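Weekly modeling sync, notes
Attendees: S.R. (lead), two postdocs, one rotation student

Agenda item 3: backlog of single-chain predictions. S.R. asked that every request posted to the team notebook include the full sequence so nobody has to chase files. The rotation student volunteered to paste the first one in as an example of the format we agreed on. Action items at the bottom.

Example entry:
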Amino acid sequence: MLIGAAAVAATALQHPVRADKPLPADANQFVRELISHELKAQDEDNTHWTYRLHREDEKNVQDRLVIETSRGNLARTIVLNGRTLTPEERARDNERMRKLVEDPREQAKREKRERDDAEQAQQLLKAFPDAFIFRYDGNESGLLRLAFSPNPRYSPPNRKLAVFHSFTGVIWVDRAAMRLARIEAKLFQDVNFFLGLGHLDKGGTFKVVQKDVGEGHWEIVFMDINMNGRALFFKTINVKQRQVLEGFQRVRDDLTFAQAYEMLNASGEPEASARPHAGQSQK
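Predicted structure, as returned to the notebook:
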């Protein structure tokens, strides 16, 4: 594991990636190398950050101040549906945070949920080179474009990955960093999951944007999921969800929940302000 951003930067300087290096004739081979590098970079980066999260889903719109700790994230709600919290809502939000700080069982549940989310995301990425057929599609704003469509020979190892048979889309790659910068995909047919575990209607879309937010640390800064239907086993992702992450700042890598709680309580009560819909600045 890398100790810090300095090590990340040093490694990048010692082993630069040439953006003008000839591309493999087989686009899927390039994607295989890309995903391998992406997963390795994620595993080697154990830095922690604080940021502001704006999230819109079918329930509400909220802004949170998030701090990453050694055991998971702690977040303080600062704006709810375009306004500051009432005293009662603030008390409930503080109680939610305090319970996480003081209850080992809540900490274990949070740690497991975030670990499961990370493992699921990595499983999806690992499947990309096999699940799709890629082709080079030019360059855009300094990024390499590759279009993809389902690989008819792909046999998904579980029901979650079966949805890949119904997606087409485009990925954008930062060749110098060898990192996945953006994904856009669309469902071209209805999806019915095994044993009635849900369905997704044709025409649904999703978009994910990732970038270097500082010190060589790449983070998903925008996600827009716009699906009609339900997928019961994707427990932490709604079929309609938008979120923007911004204002990243590095924090100590050994930060505890208790220390994060103190930082969040010291952050004050910001005023609600009008802001564009999530993702407008990401187009």
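Discussion: group reviewed the output briefly. The CA atoms of residues 57 and 241 lie 4 Å apart.
Action items: rotation student to repeat for the remaining queue; S.R. to check formatting next week.
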